[in-house]
Amino acid sequence: IDEILRSHRGEDIVLIAHGGVNRVILCWALSMDISNILRIKQDFAALNIINFYDNTAIVELMNGVTI
Hints:
Helix content: 25-40%
Shape: globular
Strand order of the largest sheet: 1-2-3
Order of helices and strands: HHEEE
Structural class: alpha+beta
Number of strands: 3
């Protein structure tokens, strides 16, 4: 994620990934320990929106539901 953010600073990015990868990214964005990965539900074709501002990640939509 760090490399993607560095390479595409200021750009909109779309990632298409498996639910497990989505959970890892969400844990990272929410500063959650990876041991909590299964506490995040991800449906098939789930939509997550995460906005990054400097060193802060804001999860705005998770699994298609506004947070």
